[in-house]
Amino acid sequence: YEKIVLTDKGGDELAKINHTFNMMMEKLEQHYQKQQQFVSNASHELKTPITVIESYAKLLLRRGFDNKEVAQESLQAIVNESSRMHEMVLQLLELAKNKEHLAIQFTQLELSPLLRKVASQMQQAYHRSFIVDAEVPRYMYSDEKLVKQLLFILLDNARKYSEGDVYIHATESADCVIITIQDKGIGIPAEHIPHLFERFYRVTEDRNRKTGGSGLGLAIAQELALQLGIIIEVESKLGQGSSFILRVPKEGLQ
Ligand code: ADP
Asked: Where in the cell is it found (predicted)?
């Protein structure tokens, strides 16, 4: 907030203090509202899997002992929803982390090996193709752990919202290393693009039910990007696919 600087003892000093105080209160109020909204959204999102788990557990108790199919279906649903909840709790903890105490370490990273490593981990986990084209530029200056975390979120989305190959391309401009993650999947309607990075925002409920999304991935990606001085841009065409473009400052964060 704005600090009060007492420059003179003039008559409008009190009015200035009053104005600053009001501005502070307004900011605090906005912050509080945002926090309230977040807690309320988080509780709501966690309530859904809990309700599903509870009803399947009840079904299991009632009919699962003498019906193997019911038991199988109920247990599978319980496992799915627990994993969903587990993932969401990890994401919430990530967002709640006190960013000021995060030790960020900018180092010179060899770009091509880093992208190939991330791609091969994704490939192994999901048996999908992640194709890297990143010989130039050779280096990037960033925090390895955080930049990988950011890449994993975008690659995971590219995988979830497409069926074909995912492309990772790197190039450079005068002051940035530009990494593009491209999929040829379902795409995003233009009116949704400005909201994608909001916490819990999802384009439609049913495309996410299928993929098990929570709407928190891109909010986390945006926070990571902010800490690393990276700008994220989105280009997308409905039905044709999406590109998430990372502009990484060549000098890192000063
Ligand atoms: P989620 O856990 O739902 O995937 P995100 O915050 O990562 O949450 O993404 C927010 C929403 O943006 C998603 O629900 C999805 O609708 C849309 N989205 C993100 N990435 C893509 C992509 N590569 N292609 C299509 N839609 C996407």
From this structure: Cell membrane
- Mean pLDDT, the chain, integer: 90
Alpha carbon distance, N-terminus to C-terminus of the chain: 23
Instruction: Give the span between the Cα atoms of 36 and 73, in whole angstroms.
Output: 37
Q: Is 180 helix (H, G, I), strand (E, B) or coil?
A: strand
Please indicate whether residue 91, judged by its CB atom, sits closer than 6 Å to ligand 1. no
Report the residue among 84, 161, 211, 238 best suited for mutation to probe ligand 1: largest number of ligand atoms under 8 A from its CB: 161
In this structure, the residue with its CA closest to atom 21 of ligand 1 is 157
Task: Give the integer Cα–Cα distance in Å for 242 and 24.
Answer: 40
Whether the Cβ atoms of residue 74 and residue 59 lie closer than 8 Å to each other: yes
pLDDT digits (tens, 9 = 90+) for 99-141: 776 788 999 999 999 999 999 999 999 999 999 999 989 999 9
pLDDT in tens, 240-254: 999 999 999 988 665
